[in-house]
Amino acid sequence: MVGKNCFAIASDRRLGVQLQTIATDFQRVFKIHDKLYIGLSGLATDAQTLYQRLVFRHKLYQLREERDMKPETFASLVSAILYERRFGPYFCQPVIAGLGENDEPFICTMDCIGAKELAKDFVVSGTSSESLYGACESMYKPNMEPEELFETVSQALMASVDRDCLAGWGGHVFIVTPTEVQERVVKGRMD
Amino acid sequence: MAMKVDMSALETNFSIPCLDDGDGMHFSADSPDVPSMVLPTCADFDGFQAATKDMVKNKRGTTTLAFIFDKGVIVAADSRASMGGYISSQTVRKIIEINPYMLGTMAGGAADCQFWHRNLGNKCRLHELSNKRRISIAGASKLLANILYSYRGMGLSIGTMIAGFDEKGPGLYYVDSEGARLVGNRFSVGSGSLYAYGILDEGYRFNMSVEEAAELARRAIYGATFRDAASGGCVSVYHVGPDGWKKLSGDDVGELHYHYYPVQKTSVEQEMTDAPSTSA
To answer: Where residue A13 sits, what CATH number does that domain have?
Structure first.
């Protein structure tokens, strides 16, 4: 979700196999560089593998270009990597969020074969995406400060996962501003 | 002198006028006391039943348990209703009060359980009135089991436990829509039952106080709601003693987690690294 010169990216913390919960501290939001984060929902193994591949590509880019990737470029990279596997896809829906030139927040989401969808306010993915759309739509306001953005994102996330059997067991929220990154674990219903 | 078997419990000693006002429910004094419901007229009855079963999506997403101990029966359940992945309610009453000394638990289709438990309550009351004594738990569970067996294969989804206290002491029966009826001391039913069994079997002793037994039941249901995605909401715990049932507690599972595992305040010294200045 986009705020005033900042963005928030959040996920739940459950790792499960259909109805059984295996872990409640699974990390789904990964850092690419200080101002670029990617969240990967869907199959856990594909999320981890995709993250490792993307970090690899970004490090090569850093070596060659001697700078960090811009969020728009990174989104195109993710889209290309996903489309490479068009006929045997990664079962992941990424959510990309970063601060671009002049610290302009950039967010986008994709389906599992790389169709980019840019937005100016918020993007969601996962099993509770329908609930999330509703919650974000009603709670979102433009130009929120980091503290207010954190509250909004946490409330929207918790409200949505409480209506989904397969998501929840806590929340993990990152608030990224040009000068700092705040990482918080949100207490949620553990059922 | 041969004793004639007393079949009076199976007879209906009353005749109810057969009203068929379109909804198809009519009780007939001639047929055995199984309400005959209208069956759909179609070419492929079995296929139709299978399709209805899939549509209704009964997945028994729940956790219920009951056990007998020296002071009666403890019955506990969660309160989540799920339709596939969507949580339709977190406040479902899964312990059904059939009469003041008998409880039934709900697992499977909510409508099925509610209707047939209510129906069982009717039958038990009628038995009481015509025989001037309460029906035993064995008798009540047998009535339900026979009814469910006659509807076997038609897509009813019920996994229930009938728990109560009668002249023989505490009684606990497991009855399901496949027609099974099992007597036992400990049962757990539903998608979260395996997780509940793990905690229940470990902590169970026959001689316990009511508070210890209630805490065991609460802990077992909590454990199941933690691991099973389809169980959650609140834990309700009931105790059935010689004087009837009493609701002991109803706790929200979200709060129960932090009661058992309070959040530890960590004194972490975090290194705040300054991000590189914006003009890169």
So the answer is: 3.60.20.10
